[in-house]
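ok trying this again, last paste got cut off
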Amino acid sequence: MKRYFLCVMVVLSLVATMIPSAMAAGTTDNGITVAEPSTPEICYPTSVTCSEDGSEIRKVYDLAPEDDPAGIPRSDFQQDGFHYTLTDLLKQELPENESRQHTETVSLQSDKKDMESVLALLPQEKEFVTDDGLMGTLTLQLATVQVEPSGYATSTKKVSATRSYPNLINQDTSNIPKSIQEDGRTLTLDDITWKTDNTVNVDGYALGDRFTAVATYTGSATSSYVKGYTVTADYSGTVSHIALNRVRYVAIFEGTPVTPLESDSFEPAFTFNWLYVAIPAAVVLLAGCAIGAGLIYKRRKENG
């Protein structure tokens, strides 16, 4: 009897040790259990370029000999309204030393347009790194410096003018013009000041009989001005690259515009793994059978 229970315990121990490995294993569509392969370390690009119309993205990977190119991401992705799919993965052997002439155009803003102020914003030399990893010191090409207005704005100010109307017999405002033309603008009457030009003695009182009206007219004037200037200039020189035992891979992704239906994200269907239920159930069933068999054997032995 003791040997029987010892055998049962050994079987249960073996089944228990199989559970973790069975749980870690995957299943194919045909129900065949396979071990999941190890995932290589993800590689990150050294540069990424995108075409102007967004139809192509190129990711450059400079890998050391110990790096596994299987770690280069190949999955589809969405970016800026495009769905990208890997169409080619190129392998390039980098030369030990690569150099070429390169021109880089810079653009910046300036408050002034005189050349002295503009050149103060442009250093004589600048360090540049190209999209494919070449670098060098480029020199400003003075002949390429251009200054253009970057935009215009308008301003409005109040303007005024005065007119004198002498030798009037009374201070009747109806005799004063209600508007005038000044520098091509129409100004309207705003105020009148009266001056007495001549007086007469009536019953011992000096009364005015001639007047001058000084009229003030006001209006507005709108003018435009340059808000600022855009300065462009070219820098030229030699850029170079020294390969340090590297292999270059270029992943080319082609993009298609995303339609509203394609932009909706769908969760993948969940696949239930029956091993999570079957294996514990088998352990419980096996343990029950073993205990039941032990009890039957014990009862028969007691009755015998």
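PB: full thing came through this time. The mean pLDDT is 81.
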